């Protein structure tokens, strides 16, 4: 499954350090969900994930993991604060 996550208003807030952190978060999420992160890349305003979801998982369950949502939000807030 190809997933694209875009920042609000396509603001350029994602740094190279953030991309490294986001890749680690998504890799861990995939391991927990018994899925495989095939490819991850991104730019300042979006990231692309290519994920092989396990048959007993769907996209809503993949992103419904509360702790991961909080980690992503914290990472994005950190990036936004650096621009202020």
UniProtKB/TrEMBL annotation:
It comes from Fischerella thermalis JSC-11. One of its GO terms (biological process) is DNA transposition. Residues 2-84 form the Transposase IS200-like domain. GO terms for molecular function: DNA binding; transposase activity. PANTHER family: TRANSPOSASE FOR INSERTION SEQUENCE ELEMENT IS200 (PTHR33360:SF2). This is Transposase IS200-family protein. SMART domains: Y1_Tnp (SM01321). It comes from the Bacteria. It holds the Pfam family Y1_Tnp. InterPro entries: Transposase_17, Transposase_17_sf. Transmembrane segments: none annotated.
């Amino acid at each position: 499954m190809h997933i694209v996550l875009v920042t609000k208003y396509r603001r350029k807030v994602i740094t190279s350090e953030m991309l490294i952190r986001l890749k680690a978060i998504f890799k861990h999420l995939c391991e927990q969900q018994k899925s495989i992160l095939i490819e991850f890349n991104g730019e300042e305003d979006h990231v692309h994930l290519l994920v092989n979801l396990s048959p007993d998982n769907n996209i809503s369950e993949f992103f419904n993991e509360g702790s991961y949502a909080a980690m992503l939000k914290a990472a994005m807030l950190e990036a936004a604060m650096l621009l202020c």
